[in-house]
TrEMBL record:
<dbReference type="GO" id="GO:0005634">
    <property type="term" value="C:nucleus"/>
</dbReference>
<dbReference type="InterPro" id="IPR002164">
    <property type="entry name" value="NAP_family"/>
</dbReference>
<feature type="compositionally biased region" description="Acidic residues">
    <location>
        <begin position="212"/>
        <end position="229"/>
    </location>
</feature>
<dbReference type="Pfam" id="PF00956">
    <property type="entry name" value="NAP"/>
</dbReference>
<dbReference type="GO" id="GO:0006334">
    <property type="term" value="P:nucleosome assembly"/>
</dbReference>
<feature type="region of interest" description="Disordered">
    <location>
        <begin position="267"/>
        <end position="289"/>
    </location>
</feature>
<protein>
    <recommendedName>
        <fullName>Nap family protein</fullName>
    </recommendedName>
</protein>
<dbReference type="InterPro" id="IPR037231">
    <property type="entry name" value="NAP-like_sf"/>
</dbReference>
<feature type="compositionally biased region" description="Acidic residues">
    <location>
        <begin position="271"/>
        <end position="289"/>
    </location>
</feature>
<comment type="similarity">
    <text>Belongs to the nucleosome assembly protein (NAP) family.</text>
</comment>
<feature type="region of interest" description="Disordered">
    <location>
        <begin position="208"/>
        <end position="230"/>
    </location>
</feature>
Amino acid sequence: MSNDQSLMDRIEFPEIPEAAMKKIAILEEQFARAEVEQLRHTHKLMAPLIAKRSEIINMPDVQPEFWMRVLATAPPEIEEYILPSDAAALGENLKNLTVERFELDAQGNGEPRSLRFTFDFKNPEENAFFSNEKLVKEFYWRQEVSKSKSGRTRTWEGLVSEPVRINWKKDADLTKGLLDAACDLAEAEKKNGGDRQKLPEYAALAKKVQEHEEEAANAEDQDEDEEDMPSPVGVSFFAFFGYRGRDVSAAKSQESAKEIEARWAKVQNGEDIDEAGDSDDEDDVEEDGLEEVEIFSDGDDLAVAIAEDLWTDALNYYGKASAPCGCAHC
């Protein structure tokens, strides 16, 4: 006799005691803070090793194919975002990739979760896709504390960024106009201010996003071969340069960080504080309109995957590309 229900569905668990829930929440926060300190420490330890690795990568007989080989054996959480057309553009033109935790100083002070990606490409005469020889994409770790209309305190933290324009050559835009439209909106916001959703650039981008979502859905319905399935976000890897995330300024983040630290100090002292709402709770959330026009919704996840996996294990992936069995030890 089969039962399709999971064990969690079949067993009625008693509610977790409130006292235990509070202890769990405090311990989870302590784990999170320890992980941030670990990132700072790791950064200091890795810096001289990364410098030595760069010397190897820049060897004349290694450099031309190094990153092409690394990307060819990239882990699934990265490889799945690279379409065949992206692979051609990257494989033929990518010369170097650098990842920096740019808000950290040499002593490890600062925000270790902010990331800067620098992609170096061949010159415009050799690159058939675009004329940029360097693309720099920065992700800032930001925090936000807000009040819902019902009065609940809400906290959010994550990576935000600004779109980076690519100067595509004629008929070579792999994002099919999405990245240009995202850049147009960001520039219009800076120029005009006010409600972004009232800008014509917002309407233009929203229309393009909808068209691409419909196109991706149709492609998924028609494609039964998993290897030929579209990217999880339905667009080119190069739309990664258009990721924005939430609209949280540096000033707003600094204010929120102070409030979060004040609340944490009270918790550590055993003081009662008003209960914060879940960051995923949609209770009376004020929308900034960016989610509806996000062209690469997994941009933050991909950034972390590149920084914490592909970048740190680049030599391992390079070795895999040369090994007959696909491992780095043959």
